[in-house]
Amino acid sequence: MSRPHPLNPALAATIPPPVMEARRWLDGVAFPEDRPLLNLSQAAPADPPPEGLRREIARLAVDVPEAHLYGPVLGLPALRERLAADWSAHYGGTARPAQVAITAGCNQAFAAAVSTLAARGDNVVVPTPYYFNHAMWLAMEGIEARLHETGQDLLPDPEAVAAAIDDRTRAILLVTPNNPGGVEYPAALVAAFRDLARACGIALILDETYRDFHAAEGAPHALLEDPDWDRTVIQLFSFSKSYRLTGHRVGAIVAAADRLREAEKWLDTVTICPAQLGQHAALWGMENLGDWLAGERREILARRRAMDAGFRDLAEWEVLGCGAYFAYVRHPFPERSDALCRRLVRDAGLLLLPGTMFGPLREAGGSGRAEATLRIAYANADLGGIEELFRRLRDVAPA
Questions:
Q1: 211 and 129, same structural domain?
Q2: Which of 41, 38, 43 is nearest to 349 (CA)?
Q3: Residues 6+ apart with CB under 8 A from 315
Q4: Kind plus residue range of the DSSP H or E element containing 351
């Protein structure tokens, strides 16, 4: 008798990819022509890069032979230099090229950063609601995601986090602007967590994937003004949202140079190097698309205002957070959020993600917020699409 193939129990216990699970809810569902599917599930631009960038990618593919070859593990030197200069100018501090590594997307940046910090049996403090891929990676590695439930405003509490830190804690993770909550963490709060991490001798991992869509002008925090920032802070970034390069997978880590030398071992083993075409595209975007990116930010902020206005007319829904790409809302129905999201596909032609994908269920020690909340990735709809979203939500009846 043949025996089943062995399976890593940590991988087996990790949840399936949530976005792929949500897409399976579409199987067998027919959408009428007058009410096509409105997909607000995945936090990614729905359009390709602007035409100028697409033409540059085509030119690179034809005219730059090295764009098809292996490159440095830590990334294209010119891109590292440009990102370091941008970081220094934007944050009012100093980041050197040696403190920048380019990765195959921001998910890989997180995985590489954690690989330098924590081993099986260690823990990382993770506010909830959390970004599910962060929780999935920690689970696969046997690293505890020590969950901290944020307040009604979705902001984490440094005092409560301090009480959760023990001798196996290796980092505090913050995402701002937040995925899935949409909230932007005040600079003073970010600094308080830096101070806490420094006092405890652990790292502060700051995922700023959506930095370019922050509502406030200027730098969102002042961490780099500290000349010793890299002893504590690890920043993560993504070019995917800023320049619509999702399929090219280009992200970055900004951290101490000696930490990046350790991350290089992990990155070399996993991908050898980031994709060259994507790196060249990101560099061209930084050099040429400043005005275009400013226009993208204005458009996202306009959509945010439309979301705020729409929910003011839906009093039975409660907005917990709204910003960057997301609105995180409490729904008014008695059913659990994952059941509601399946019903919204059938009854309203809406694909949203339930709070059950972003935090623990009540049966696992959660407060019940996961069962009562939804994430709406409104950046994937234009203003007309947002109007249609609210028309459909108004028509949803209790189950």
A1: yes
A2: 38
A3: none
A4: strand 350-351
CA 61 to each of CA 55, 69, 167, 266: distance values in angstroms, whole numbers, following the listed order: 10, 11, 50, 28
Q: Is 357 contained in some domain?
A: yes
Burial 254-273 (b: 16+ CB within 10 A, else e): bbbeebbeebbebbeeebeb
Q: From residue 217, give the alpha-carbon distance in Å to each of 58, 99, 180.
A: 34, 25, 22
171 in helix, strand or coil? strand
Residue 2 lies in a domain: no
The pLDDT profile of the chain, 399 residues, written as one tens digit per residue, is: 566 778 898 998 888 999 899 999 999 999 999 999 999 998 878 789 999 999 999 999 999 999 999 999 999 999 999 999 999 999 999 999 999 999 999 999 999 999 999 999 999 999 999 999 999 999 999 999 999 999 999 999 999 999 999 999 999 999 999 999 999 999 999 999 999 999 999 999 999 999 999 999 989 999 999 999 999 999 999 999 999 999 999 999 999 999 999 999 999 999 999 999 999 999 999 999 999 999 999 999 999 999 999 999 998 999 999 999 999 999 999 999 999 999 999 999 999 999 999 999 888 888 889 999 999 999 989 999 999 999 999 998 776
Q: Which residue has the tokens 């083993």?
A: 269
N-to-C CA span, the chain: 48
272 lies in the same domain as 134: yes
CA distance 307 to 326: 9
DSSP string, 17-53: PHHHHHHHTTTT----TTS--EE--S-S-SS---HHH
Closest CA to 307 of 284, 323, 290: 323
Provide the residue range defining the domain that includes 319: 9-48+292-395
DSSP secondary structure, 217-233, as one string: SS-S--GGGSTTGGGTE
Longest dimension (CA), the chain: 66
Pairing of strands 353-354, 350-351: unpaired
Element containing residue 343 per DSSP (H, E): helix 337-348
Q: Which of 272, 288, 304 is the last residue of a domain?
A: 288
Residues 222 and 336 in one domain: no
